Amino acid sequence: MSNRKAAITGIAGYVPEDKLTNADLEKMVDTNDEWIRTRTGIEERRILKDQTKATSDLGTAAVKELLRKTGVKPEEVDMLICATATPDHLFPSTANIISDKCGLVNAWSYDIMAACSGFIYSLATASQFIETGKYSKIIVVGADKMSSIIDYEDRATCIIFGDGAGAVMLEPNDEGLGVQDSILHSDGSGREFLHQKAGGSLNPASIKTVENKEHFVYQEGKTVFKFAVSKMADVSAEIMERNNLKSDDVSWLVPHQANLRIIDATARRMGVDNSKVMINIQKYGNTTNGTIPLCLWEWEDQLKKGDNIVLAAFGGGFTWGSLYLKWAYTAN
Ligand code: UT7
Predict the structure, then answer these.
(1) pLDDT tens digits, the chain, 332 residues: what are they?
(2) 250 near 198, Cβ under 8 Å?
(3) Of 113, 225, 242, 289, which has the fewest Cβ atoms less than 10 A away?
(4) Annotated active-site positions, please?
(5) CA pair distance 285, 281, nearest whole angstrom
(6) How far is the CA of 262 from the centre of ligand 1 (A)?
(7) Distance between CA 119 and CA 147 in Å, rounded?
(8) Cα(236)–Cα(243) distance, rounded to whole angstroms?
């Protein structure tokens, strides 16, 4: 059997410049910095204020930087997958738009919608196309303009989310480095606890849906929290066990950044020390599909060839999963 694996060979990220701090939110809704920090770990988020710009613009900025860093020419890219919960339009896909804006004239592209687990789902999907030998250069981008679906009068949700994007280049690796394993789950019965009520075929947009604020994120936080803690920790422990990884073998845990308490619970369950957990929730909040690639981007200089990295996520659907990869290069 071929030992062809799919390895990340480059990473880039993009966050908008404008910050929305806890102090700003204190002026908008009945909340306070202490509550937000202790309940979530978040101090500020980035917001794409330009109303003429969308999720594809966040993704395009990340992909253009990725192409610059890796030296890959746009026409060399075979395929692009965009993980997003806030597509520019319901159709065409945001992946098509990013590919157009980046000049990926030979790539075919589509979106994967799996809420906060979308980046892991997409990485697992893309890696199959590399492992089979079908393609050699695939870009996976996680991008969300969450501010476009947040009600800034709802203190339970507006404190959590931010905008951002990250993108990785996937290429074949014959040294056994790259994606080793993934465990993915979904359970649609969880949909009632975290969803956007209107705008789809069930409740098309109408004056009533707008008046009722049904185009915003709806979340029953406590229930989602309970599921997130147990599912993200379980699946991360399971992937370690299946791959004979002991706590000391894990170089880095890259958790979805939804809540610092969920991240801590996952790390504890895996027995992974805090110093090996990528956390940037304080700066960006929950950027949905952007969280995991934004972490990898920020930590790139500390990653070494051969590092064992476990990604983990939980999100609306419910969807959840974890992915184990061996990092393929040492930067610089
Ligand atoms: O990424 C996708 C998956 N999503 C998640 O993983 C998110 C999971 N859920 C969470 O992270 C947490 O449930 C939240 C951060 C959303 C909320 O934290 P919590 O500790 O579960 O708070 P709670 O909803 O149980 O609310 C506790 C109290 C309530 O007041 P009472 O009823 O105890 O008087 C809320 O009304 O805190 C109140 N509260 C707030 N207070 C100040 C809710 N939001 C706020 C706020 N500021 N922003």
Answers:
(1) 578 999 999 999 999 999 999 999 999 999 999 999 999 999 999 999 999 999 999 999 999 999 999 999 999 999 999 999 999 999 999 999 999 999 999 999 999 999 999 999 999 999 999 999 999 999 999 999 999 999 999 999 999 999 999 999 999 999 999 999 999 999 999 999 999 999 999 999 999 999 999 999 999 999 999 999 999 999 999 999 999 999 999 999 999 999 999 999 999 999 999 999 999 999 999 999 999 999 999 999 999 999 999 999 999 999 999 999 999 999 97
(2) no
(3) 242
(4) 116, 256, 286
(5) 5
(6) 13
(7) 19
(8) 11
How close is the Cα of 111 to the center of ligand 1, in Å?
30
Tell me the best of 158, 225, 229 to mutate to test the pocket of ligand 1, counting ligand atoms within 8 Å of each CB and taking the most. 225
Nearest to 83 by CA among 98, 102, 73: 98
Distance from Cα 39 to the centre of ligand 1, integer Å: 7
Instruction: Encode 199-232: b = buried (16+ Cβ within 10 Å), e = exposed.
Output: beeeeeeeeeeeeeebbbbbbebeebbebbbbbb
Q: Domain 5-175: state its class.
A: alpha beta
- Domain ranges within the chain, ordered by starting residue: 5-175, 180-326
Q: Domain 180-326 belongs to what topology?
A: Peroxisomal Thiolase; Chain A, domain 1 (3.40.47)
